[in-house]
């Protein structure tokens, strides 16, 4: 019997009809060596069936309590049917990159059946017309797996581990992760008495833990509060200006992506010696926002603020308990009002260092810690109140998440994965989310938004390439091999 953690439950309580809590992965594969005898759908189905035991995500579903009296439970789906989770898909003629993006966005925008295990995989075969300038290394006969999982079950880090467990390290079927000793996890349905006991126990215990966490946090937040009160520099206060990204988000999302060589991105760190790869990511996103908003004559004089999720897992965390969400966050000033790309990059690096030292990012982490100790009914109500008050717009303008992945090629049934992209949930007042995934020497920048927020998403994608190029041109790096989605 496994009960959801408070942070996982938030993705249930904050879900709305317009903004679903779906997380979607788009993996593009080149055809296997024996492509002529390769039945894409049947081969992938057979492979997934052989790996169902590697993660409880596959075969367990949610059991929610009436009125959200307590957090839900994971229970075994005794009627699990893999055919309810696998779908055969194909692109209309001509089958190009934009159509693949549109299909992924459409799948991402549909609600999941909450009475079944919360995942589905769409197998898109015959990618025969993906242009090299749009998405490199996609020869005719390639296919894609569009995998959608409810965010209640997985975060960025656990998602990468989940996909690694499904993958092989060579064309011959050698698993990428050691799955030989993995035993299936079974979650029996709790009795009514046990659920009532837990609900009462959690409601009594939670207020005490809430107050203890708040008391422990006072020494760390006091200096930040005092600095904010006495500071004359408004840039240090991370005041959030209203932007086009802070409007209501349409139910149908849109998606685009581009990729860069990881070595090229790391070479940009020479421009700001103290910078980290995450600072490079933020600098490129900031540059793209600067160019995009300037082109639309909509660039605020006040810089935009990004919400940046941070993996909260420890290196020695139990690998058997890696599903679900273990994240905290910090706010990052993107200095989008600065025209000079290196000055912008330098300011971002300095600001993120301060946030990581808990001098400006402590509020987000404190809210994360406090939410762990809210009773289920309180969390459900608080989530609804947050949505009703549009508090997101007061905290940030957009989100940027950097998720590291494996730096070796991965395979499935002999086909090599050549690209990985991701889509994530949005919320009203936060209509732009950029996710970067590093894989096998590349880093992809995946953009989730909606047409009413960014109606010209291909142009925004070009702005990401422009921001990268203007930094690269200031180094001695040769011309980079960038995959540009148009």
Describe the fold and architecture.
By secondary structure, the chain is an alpha+beta fold. The chain contains 12 helices and 15 strands. The chain has helices at 6-13, 40-50, 97-108, 156-166, 192-230, 262-267, 277-295, 341-356, 362-371, 376-389, 392-395, 457-472, and strands at 2-3, 22-29, 60-63, 73-76, 86-90, 119-127, 142-150, 253-261, 305-311, 327-333, 398-403, 411-412, 415-423, 433-439, 442-450. A 6-stranded mixed β-sheet has the order 5-6-7-2-13-12, sandwiched between helices. A 6-stranded mixed β-sheet has the order 8-15-14-11-9-10, sandwiched between helices. Strand 12 (411-412) and strand 13 (415-423) form a beta hairpin.
Strand residues, percent: 15-25%
- The sequence of SSEs as H and E is EHEHEEEHEEHHEHHEEHHHHEEEEEH
Task: Give the overall pLDDT as a whole number.
Answer: 81
> How many whole angstroms does the radius of gyration measure?
23 Å
How is the biggest beta sheet arranged?
A: 6 strands, mixed
- CA-CA gap between termini: 47 Å
- Unreliable runs: 208-222, 317-322, 358-383
* Mass-distribution shape: globular
Labels describing this entry:
486 residues; alpha+beta; 12 helices; globular
